[in-house]
Amino acid sequence: MDLNHAYYLVHVVEKQGFSAAARTLGIPKSRISRQVKTLEETLGTRLLNRDSRHMSLTEAGEAYYRHAKMALECMVAAEKAVRKDKHALEGTVTLSCSVGVAQFALSRILPRFLAGNPRVVLRLHASNDYSDMIGDGIDLAIRGHAKLLPDSGLIQRRITDVPRHLFGSPGLAKHLGASASPSDLDGQPGLALGWRPGSSTWSLQGAGGSTASVQYAVRMRCDDMVSLKEAAAAGLGVVALPAYVCAADVAAGRLSRLLPDWTAGFPEISLLMHERRGNPPQVDAFAAFLRRELPDVMNCGGSG
Asked: Is the pLDDT of residue 250 over 70?
């Protein structure tokens, strides 16, 4: 069934004639007449009684007009509903990131995005192992890296650089004193991020481009930042972590920043995504939200 046929018939009835309907719709009268005739032939019955001066609905025409009018009203309502919500985001977004980013950065901003987009469903894969974005069906990934990421065919967008600072217990900070230098940490117990065997050296950068290398005695290797913070607060050693991860602990007096004139690196945080074209609207909108909001979250705190 061609809804155009019903559309033209309803207009003819409501405008009480073919000429008036043609003027209202801005189309030739002959076109409307053909549409109505085709409709009658399709249905196998006459819908209109008409002569040169009068027009009226047959019994079948009255029944058809009544139902056709309701159907067209439903179509109009459907179109309005779509137009009204065409800017409302809807669908699923799958994001991959490290556990630390999920706990200490995303947790502060995700509720706001989801509250403002009630039809968006977020699937968050928090893991310290890199995921296969294509194989695992991941839309976006947040990655921290000190060097350029390998060319994977994905689009890479810089979010921010994140300062890593040295933290320890307030007791250790007091023992070292305000004038402590990198050499004062040589041989100190250290807590390393990452459970696999690796380096036991902090490469520090100071003011004016100065650098220092500090060898520490590994007490624990762990890929969970919460456990490392707890161990540092308990006086088990010094840990190098992103400043934003320890900001609340420093403010609460549970941790202190050591060597405040030195940093332990500035890893870059990037957002990986698929080709620009073809991404669903909710994915593009979430990517823009992350690039806008994460820099402020990841560059807070760390002094003290």
From this structure: yes
| Mean per-residue pLDDT, 194-209 | 91
Minimum mean pLDDT among 71-85, 110-124, 198-212, 284-298: which range? Answer: 71-85
CA distances from 63 to 6, 44, 194 (A): 12, 14, 75
Same fold, 3-82 and 91-158+268-300: no
Whole-number Å distance between alpha carbons of 242 and 100? 9
Q: Torsions phi, psi of 255, nearest 5?
A: -130, 160
E strands, the chain, are 48-50, 55-57, 91-97, 120-126, 140-145, 155-161, 164-168, 189-193, 201-205, 211-215, 217-222, 238-242, 256-258, 268-273
The answer to whether the CB of 238 falls within 8 A of the CB of 173 is no
CATH class of the 3-82 domain in this structure:
mainly alpha
* Distance set, CA 51 to CA 175, 227, 273 (Å): 108, 90, 67
Dihedral sign (CA 246, 251, 254, 259): positive
The 10s digit of each residue's pLDDT in 144-193 is: 887 666 656 788 899 999 999 999 999 999 999 988 999 999 999 999 99
- Sorted by where each begins, the domain ranges of the chain are 3-82, 91-158+268-300, 164-263
Do 128 and 171 touch, CB atoms closer than 8 A? Answer: no
In 10 A of CB 278, how many CB atoms?
A: 7
- Exposed (0-12), middle (13-18) or buried (19+): which is 146, by Cβ within 10 Å? exposed
Class of domain 164-263: alpha beta
- Give tens-digit pLDDT for 113-124: 999 999 999 999
